[in-house]
Amino acid sequence: MARDSYDDSYTRPVRRLLLAVLVLLLVSLVLIWRIDNPRMERMRAAIVDRYVPNMEWAMAPITGIARMAEDFQSYTRLFEQNQELRRELQQMRAWREAALQLEQENARLLDLNRVQLDPELTFVTGIVLADSGSPFRRSVLLNVGARDGILDGWATMDGLGVVGRISGVGDSTSRVMLLTDAASRIPVTIMPSGQQALLMGDNSANPVLDFVEDPEDIAAGDRIVTSGDGGLFPPGLLVGQVVFTSDRRLRGRLSADLQRLNFLRVMRSHPGTTLDDPADLIGPPWPPVGMVVDQSGALVPDPSARAEAPDPDESE
User: Fold this and answer.
1) What distance in Å separates the CA atoms of residue 246 and residue 217, rounded to the nearest whole number?
2) Is residue 307 part of a domain?
3) Same domain, yes or no: 42 and 126
4) Residue 302: inside a domain
5) Is 274:265 a contact under the CB 8 Å cutoff?
6) What is the residue-level pLDDT of the chain in tens, covering all 316 positions?
7) Please, how many CA atoms are within 13 Å of residue 10, restricted to the half-sphere of its CB?
8) Residue 246 belongs to some domain of the structure
9) Phi first, then psi: what are they for 48, rounded to 5°?
10) Does one domain contain both 154 and 262?
């Protein structure tokens, strides 16, 4: 019991002394770091050069924890950005689906109303009978042929975009070579840059765009329409959009749905009538039969025609 009291009376002053020395040292360090003097600045630099490099082992855990906290914050930001991009992608898919539905509905309404955007173009609608393609050929059969006036080389559409061209005509059937066929080559125009190109099939879903003059001026999503060069296809028919694939080649995504071909329209071109003289316009007779124009310029029934008409009572 006496030994414990002796140890306590001995260590207590030592602890107090050490605490006082530590406080004095810390206060001195604060004062040294607070003094704005060139000499003190050199002293601080010397202390840092002398002791800080040797304390890296003690700072390693703190540095590691700080880096982990920064990495966690960066991962959190990346996760938030990823979620935001996913939401935007979902919205873009919804808008794309809505745009496709509106485009299909517009094409159906134009077809029902028999609207002709080009007065020289008419079409014959045929039903797809079968897929006569093979691993090396992409084509379908239609139930219209020579008896319907179909000619070899005419363009075919599904209501949205170009599907291919007539390649072989029978009496009641005809074969359509699809744009994806390896033998298909059609001249096209890329809008809005207006560059000319050649759309070449390679038995894949997206034909290749080749012979482009300035590929730098072409962006993904640009519209592809027929150019009409060579008289193969009428100009201005929608083909699809430009896409960049993994092989770093320009390709075309067709607007036509080649997986669901039920009806096809065979586009035929009739030359329009040239009117060089207004007298060439043939209008209805004026005034109409049984009507005359009075002094005021209004149409009134012709009294002479009424007088010449037989009386029903007299005929009896």
Assistant:
1) 19
2) no
3) no
4) no
5) no
6) 555 555 666 677 778 888 888 888 888 777 776 777 777 777 777 777 776 666 666 667 777 787 888 877 888 888 888 888 888 888 887 787 777 777 767 766 665 555 555 555 678 888 888 775 556 568 888 989 988 888 888 889 887 889 999 988 988 899 999 999 888 899 999 988 888 999 999 888 889 998 888 888 888 888 899 988 877 788 888 899 998 887 778 899 898 888 888 888 888 765 444 545 555 545 555 566 667 666 655 666 777 655 554 554 544 4
7) 6
8) yes
9) -65, -45
10) yes
Comparing C-alpha atoms, which of 53, 261, 316 is closest to residue 138?
A: 261
Residue 67 within a domain: no
pTM, two decimals, is 0.49
Which domain-ending residue is among 254, 269, 284? 269
242 is written with which tokens? 């430009």
How many separate domains does the chain show? Answer: 2
- Token pair for residue 147? 């008896």
The torsion defined by the Cα of 13, 15, 18 and 22, in degrees rounded to 10, comes to -130
Q: Whole domain around residue 129: which residue ranges?
A: 122-269
Q: Classify burial at 232, counting beta carbons within 10 Å of its beta carbon; exposed 0-12, middle 13-18, buried 19 or more.
A: middle
